Every structure is written in structure tokens, then in C-alpha cells.
């Protein structure tokens, strides 16, 4: 039903685009109007919930910091931005970019960079002091051929396992401590199964299964080889990858039968209701648990087994489109996005953590405080499922392979598809 | 000369906007799509592109994912058409025999058509939950409550291509059977009662009456039903998108694959898929159009 609504919006957007391009000439005539040129259109897929609240926080900071400019909301609703990306692609192809648009930081920006649609913002990093405020490892992750193309507004962690202490107790397992390795985790799942828990791991379709695969690969290969998988430096066809995928297959066999039919909030409910022991999901779960009023004692969380010390990240960021309207306004928006006040206003509401390492920890709720400590201390590794390590095209191929694997469980077919997907295109 | 313009001029003037709009928005855009499908525009970069002939088509037909989506579409179409025709005809027959409160039944059968595919897709996504046994939900739960446990199955998430795509066809059958019923019912009502009486006087049994008198009269309707269902099945996108999500290999059909390809800005490949889809629809529709044109000119 939400999909239907957002589809309508996308269609209206596309129709509007036609109308705009049809009267392109008259637009040019109006650009002399000074008040219109001060508009800063900000394109996002944050249309409701905590995301919208976070955006509103940014907007109010923008209102005080950038008095010369007017914020114009250009949000397109739809999960993970699938509709928004389509509308944005149309806008960019028609040469009508917004002043700034949202994109996952990292490889997902690669398409826009390759297409010449976004500008280098490295100078702004120096100007705003972001090169000192962001951890060096994040800056390294964002840098493409010596240039940086976006300013991250937040950071999410992907390699987190959320557990139900009550269910773990059935098999006399310690909920506060993660199993030391993937093998130990599999052993725990066997114990849970023996104790009568039918599906120890709750997971859901598409990117959630991809996240499970990613944490297994990360644990088995280590951070450097894992990162290399997505940029061609590690051989995706290697025997160590095969071994890791075999373990992933084993883990998936411990999961719920309806995984292809549900979304991640449903999988989380299996854990909350005591039907499953674990679910692998990003730390937006913390915001969901707060919103659902699940008491802190009802769940615990730890880095996925074997991945402690690694912070698998994804980040929402803003860009400076090539030939965008109101570039000064867009720069002011980017300044707000990177600033301590802006990141606080945004992240306390969205449930993510600031990318800056100088943020005040006590401003944030319990889970985020722990994540912020890890963000400072851990090795930062990109996530493929959320665009930090993979382009949209690569991720589309991987998701298709995941669906095929979930029913056939053929490691050979999966690995072949992953090799094809990982090839830089 | 002047007089001739008087005869055809006004008519042409009335038709002109339609012809222009159709020419641009339908045939012009088809030509544009076809042209794009012959280029190497595999990204959104605003640079000049080269014509590469039929390379995109050759690549498509060498790709496992595309062939899989075509096979899925074939199975889906067969399951959808057969299922809808059977239920539509069955309901029409039952109503034609006469039941009290026919109006109510008609509305009940027709009602699903009023629901948009995307909305019914969301609901059917829940109903087709593959969990079985104690965890069963959706339809499987209903079966277990009714002690029909042998009917529980994993729906589209496991098993052969046939069981997968038949599960996907199920909601579409539910949605359109009522429409086909309405078509057939109108057909039955359009047959003059004298024909039935004559057949009965000649001593035809009820079975023979339907077999030799009534059904032959319905064949034009059956043909239109086939065409309508066929082209709807080929275009089916929202239902699959809502039930299984956009990236499900098991249920992907060309229209969904085209959406995914467009999302990764591979314009040329997406255009090629669109043209293949158009060709498949044309194979179905053109003979029908030819047939109806011939029928009309004979009359």
C-alpha cells in the first residue's frame, strides 16, 4: 500500500518532468528573478518516520546558518530510495539536477561520478575542517582517485546481531557475549535447535540475506580481503570464498522458512516474540525498538561473530551535482550537513550516529553511545548491501543471485553469480 | 476538388489530434526505444552513443537471467490464462443456469477487479506465506484450521517453475475471473432463446445443447478473452513486484527485469527488453486484429 502511493508519486514526478522539459525555454527566461535563484532544492527519500524527523532537524539548522537561502523539499517516498533513484536519474538525464541530492556514500556514488554528474568537494572538506573531524579511515573509504564527492550526514553499522536473551537461555547460552567465530555461532545454533527452537536465525528477503552473507564473508576473510572482494583485489572465485559461502549456506539452513516472504521488521518481531534467537540487521533496529517501546532488557546486540573490531558501515551523504542550481546554497547545505550541530540535529532523531568523531556522546541514546565508541576505535569496512562497497548495478546482480540461492542452495551457482557481479562495470 | 475536401475534411480534422498524439506518444516513442536498443548507451552519461546493431539482443538471449525471466513469463501466461478461463466460464455457467440473488453473486465475483494490482499484491504476499505446520500463516494457516493440511505448500518460494509461477498467477486469476465471467455471461444472454428451444425440440440433451449450440456461439468472446488475458499477463509487473519484491530470481519476468535494468541506468539493455516484450505482445495481438478486420469486412 505504501508502495502504491510512492509509485504514484514517482509517476507524477515523471509526468512533471515531461512538463518541465517541454517548457524549458520559458524556464530560462525566469532565472533572472533573484528570489527564485536562492531556492535550494534538496532531493532525498526521507519522507516519513525517523528519517523525516532527522531531515527536519537538518532543515532547522539550515534555517539559522544559511539565512540567505530557502530550503525546498524535494523528497520522493519509497523504501531505500528505489523510487527516488529513478526520479533522480530522469532529472539528471534531462540536465535538471537539484541543488543537492542524497546518495549512499562510497561505491554507489561511482555511477554518478562515472557519469560526470557530481562535482569534487575535496576543497569544501578543507574549508569546513571536515578532513580533521571525520576519521581518516572513513575519508580513505570516500576518496576516489584522490577526490571526494560527497559529505556524509550520518553513519550506520551493518554487522550487528540482535538477540533474544530469553530464547538463548533455553539452550543455556550467554546472551551478553558473541560466539567467538562463525563456527562457534553455528554450534550455538545447533544447540538452540536441539533445545526446540525451530529457526534460531530470523532473516528476510533480499538485502537482509545479503547482509548475513556479508558478515560471514567478513568474519572468514578478514577486513582487507573482504573489502578487496568488491574492487577486484580479492579473487571472488577463490577457495576461501567457497568455504565461507558453505558456512553461509549452513547458517541460512537455520533460518525461518518464510524468509523470502517477509521484510526485516517481521524478522525482528520473531526475535522480539521469542520465536528466534538472532537476526542480522543494521543498527536502524535500535530506532525501531525504541519506536516499538521494546524494553532494553528484552534484547541484546553484539558485532556479528568473528567481526568484532570491524565497523561495517554505510552512510547517507549529500552531493554537489554538476551544473546544479544555486551552488552557493548547496555548499551552505553541505556545510550544515557536515557540522557538529547539523549532525546532532539529524542523528539524534534518525537513530544513526554522527560521522564526526568529535560528537558529544551523552547527547545520544544507549545503543548509539556504544556504536560511537566502536566507530572511533574499530577498523572501518564498507558494506555492499547498502552501496558503500558496491554500485547499484553490482548490487542488483547480487540480490538476484541471493534470491536464486535461497531456494536452490547451490553454492557453486551463487559463487559464479558473485564473480560476475563483482566484476567492475 | 473543393467539394471533396468538404466531404473528408471535417472528419480528418476531428481525427487529426488523435493521429498526431498517437503518432508521437505511441509510435514515435516505440521508434525511439527501438533506436536506443541498438546503441551502446549503458549508463546515464550525456555523451554521444554509437550504434552497435543487434548486439544488445544477442547479449540478452545469451544471458541466463533474461532467459529465466522469459521462461517464467511463458509459464505464468499459461497458468494465468487457463486458470482464469476455467473459473470465468464455470461461474458464468452457474449464473446462467439461474440462482437466487444473481446480482449479489455477480458483484462478489466482479469485485476483485476493483482492487488495484499493487494493493492485492501486498495482501496476497501475506496470504502466500510459505511457513507450514505449527508456524503456518496466511492460506496455509487457513488450510490447517480446516484440517486440509495436505494442501499446505511453500507456494512460490520452493519447487519447480510451474508451482512457482502458478502461485504467482493465483492472485491474478482471483482478480480477473470475474471479468471473464461477465464476458461469458453476456455472451450466453446474447444467444436468442429460440435457438435453445429449437435444440430441445430436436431432442438435444443438456450436454449436447451446450456442446453444439451454445459454446460455438461464444468462440468470438473466448478469443477476445484470450487476447485480453494474454496481453495483461505479459505486462504483469505490479503484482509480482508487490508479492516477491523487485529482485527475486525465481519469479522475475521481463517487465520486472526491465525495471531493474533501468534502475542501474543501462538504457540500451532496458530498451532491448522493452522491444522484446513488445514483439511478444505483437505475436499475440496482430493475428487477432487481422482476424477481426477480416470478420468485419466479410460482414
UniProtKB/TrEMBL annotation, chain A:
InterPro entries: Bact_solute-bd_prot1, SBP. It is found in: Cell envelope. Residues 1-22 form the signal peptide. GO terms for cellular component: cell envelope. It comes from the Bacteria. Belongs to the bacterial solute-binding protein 1 family. Part of a binding-protein-dependent transport system for a sugar. This is Probable sugar-binding periplasmic protein. It comes from Kribbella italica.
Automatic annotation (TrEMBL), chain B:
Keywords: Cell membrane, Membrane, Transmembrane, Transmembrane helix, Transport. It is a multi-pass membrane protein. One of its GO terms (cellular component) is plasma membrane. It is found in: Cell membrane. Residues 70-290 form the ABC transmembrane type-1 domain. The keyword Transport applies. It comes from the Bacteria. Belongs to the binding-protein-dependent transport system permease family. This is Glucose/mannose transport system permease protein. It comes from Kribbella italica.
